[in-house]
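Subject: sequence -> structure tokens, single chain

Hey, anyone have a minute? Need the predicted structure for the following. Not urgent.
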Amino acid sequence: MLVVANTPKVHNVIVCTLCSCYPWPVLGLPPVWYKSAPYRSRAVKDPRGVLADFGIKLPANIEIRVWDSTAETRFLVLPMRPAGTEDWSEERLAQLVTRDAMIGTGLAKRPEEVA
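Reply:
Had a minute. Here:
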């Protein structure tokens, strides 16, 4: 299992182009769309478009890296830490992280969403 971190300059997206390799022991069962052929092919060809479909519109200067999981290597995304959470405990920060954020098709929740 490898973890790739989102930064102010890079956003990571996870896909399995061959099947549906997914870190289910950590994230639970994969969402249906993760295994779908349209997601698997578009995530590679048009990651910005896929993210837009999920409501994430990133500025053009942010690089999008697509990671292709395999049976031997599974990936997770470490979402960027939201501003205003510098003094938060690990337990509080964990409340901001969603399954989609750990796949790259979502962002960490905003602090006010879990206050």
